[in-house]
Amino acid sequence: MNTDDMILISVDDHVVEPPDMFENHVPSAYRDRAPRVVRKDDGTDVWVFENTPVPNIALNAVVGRPPEEYGMEPTSFEQIRAGCYDVDARIHDMNANGVLASMCFPSFPSFSGSLFARQPDKKLAKVMLQAYNDWHIDEWCGAYPGRFVPLSLPAIWDPHEMAAEVRRVAAKGCYAVSFTENAEKLGYPSIHSDHWNPVWEACCDEGVVVCVHIGSAGGMVFTSMDSPVDVMITGQPIQILGFASDLLWSPVLRRYPDIRFALSESGIGWIPYFLERADYVYKHHHAWTRQDFGNRLPSEVFREHVLTCFIDDAAGIHSRETIGVDTIAWECDYPHSDSTWPHAPETLARCLEDVSDDEVNKITHENAMRAFRFEAFKHRPREKCTVAALRAESPDVDTSVQSQGGKPPATDTGPVTTADIVNQLAAVFTEVPADVGK
Predict the structure, then answer these.
(1) In this structure, is residue 361 part of a structural domain?
(2) pLDDT tens per residue across span 371-392
(3) Whole domain around residue 188: which residue ranges?
């Protein structure tokens, strides 16, 4: 397929929440307790919630920077592209990249909304979580109908509250909810328990996909403090293997035939061996492990229930028949360091070089449309949804690489290490004055 003719829907991007996001969605009685952005004396910005600073506002939102400035920076709105937090600018950046629609995961509340879940006042937590979801659906996504795939945060502290919120936002047209790759790690029962059954039932009833993003169980996974940070960057996507295995061997997929999950930013190249191994384990061990998939194999059940997602994964595309072409969706990861912006179509085309047009359409947009009940062509005709058509709408976007004045971790002893990154993040937190939230 000609690159200009592709239609791209990204099922994993991110939003850096703007400072005024809560203004229109928090009841007056709670307005003084809403999270807010505070400017520090050193010119950096932090969110503050209940007198506690939340580092940092734009974790790894480095799109458009020179690669040598990548890192856990930036730490102020001035250091990032406006498209990270301004929806009008985001649309222009999407157009320049030839991307029709985008699903945007959160930044400062965490992927599973744990910032709100940690609050002892659960009424406050619910008010702020619903305010976040309303802002995301009504303002961010609602500003440009047909350009964003809505995604809600979960009321993860209570399965009944979470189920109710799933139903509430589904009524607003949101058919995706973010979850965690390891609930037990966050202090909740695992997915092997019955604890989450009300959630699974609500998702089945409403046709809502459970999106599980890498790093959603407490952040990045480090092997050691002195390991190069490249170790974490290399292995982080594949860490989702643990959740995939948990999910497959749990009763969830067999108990709820209509449940659907998405493995967000996890890549797909590892999946063929994972499925092969799961089938081998089942054949060789199910007699004594007491697993029962009936007359099906674990790999077949996985393909029925799980959407797999990739940014740039030639190995996975080469094995697409084993993975299941109907289960694969594409991601851009704007504005993070793995993003292929502003050359996503060209990068993706290299992966899809020998793929048929029918399969290209499934991978680039049709699978996402089906999974998330997203009517891509409701608001604009198909011919205006292509890479070429979108780029023509925003021809003057500056996509040149520009320094943003960030502070990448300095090291005189060799590669950047885990300790460098951890110390950088710790500095963001500890430099906040004690009275900043008062």
Answers:
(1) yes
(2) 999 999 999 999 999 999 999 9
(3) 3-430
